[in-house]
Design brief:
By secondary structure, the chain is α/β, with parallel strands linked by helices. It has one domain: Spore Coat Polysaccharide Biosynthesis Protein SpsA, Chain A, CATH 3.90.550. Helix content is 35%, strand content 24%. The strands form 2 sheets. Strands 1, 4, 5, 6, 7, 8, 9 and 10 form an 8-stranded mixed β-sheet that branches. The longest helix is centred in the last third of the chain and has 15 residues. The chain is globular and about 40 Å long.
Length: 198
């Protein structure tokens, strides 16, 4: 099996943003391309992107990046964990461990991915100043348990259901905690991205 893969969820309606988050500009790139590039720069090349809303447009936008796209056709009536299951099913048994993140958390760094891979945990969450962030890293065996979960509490419920114990890795990377659900948060992320590049 490949050492590591990633599942990126980009299926939602972006209703609070009022614009399609994955394809919003971020410097010279876009949000989704930044997330993919960070994983690839850390040596993670088996990447699954789950699309839904604006799926055709998004899939064309990242067609040159060497990722696989899978569509959540009922994105408007489903939750994020439903999209996660689509991604996990697509990558199951291909990688020893799999990163998981929504597409709207674009500022985590390459070093964070590498540091997480250097742990031996089956289930790990990065933290910055004790604040939990993304991406998560999950072993292939626990993904099988996630896929069995049918409760009402999404990813949090699956984590509690599985036999693995969540471990936390403190990283020097504030990017793990900044998502962008609103125009104000997006503006802040753009400013932070430009500061990172100075």
């Amino acid at each position: 099996m490949i050492k590591a893969g990633a599942v990126i969820i980009a299926a939602g309606l972006s209703s609070r943003m009022g614009d399609f988050k994955p394809m919003l500009p971020l410097g010279e790139t876009t949000v989704i391309r930044k997330v993919i590039k960070t994983f690839q720069s850390a040596g993670v090349h088996k990447i699954v992107v789950v699309t839904g809303f604006n799926g055709n447009q998004l899939e064309k936008h990242i067609a040159d990046m060497g990722v696989e796209c899978f569509r959540n056709e009922i994105y408007a009536q489903s939750q994020m964990f439903d999209s996660a299951k689509i991604g996990f099913s697509a990558i199951l048994d291909m990688c020893e461990r799999v990163f998981f993140t929504p597409a709207d958390i674009p500022l985590f760094g390459v070093d964070t991915i590498i540091n997480m891979l250097n742990t031996r945990s089956d289930l790990i969450c990065p933290t910055w100043q004790n604040k939990k962030g993304h991406p998560l890293l999950v072993s292939n065996e626990l993904i099988k348990e996630f896929l069995e979960y049918t409760g009402d509490y999404g990813l949090h419920g699956a984590i509690k259901y599985c036999t693995g114990k969540m471990e936390y890795l403190e990283v020097n990377d504030w990017g793990i905690i900044y998502d962008m659900d609103t125009p104000q948060e997006y503006s802040a992320v753009k400013v932070m991205y430009e500061e990172m590049r100075v």
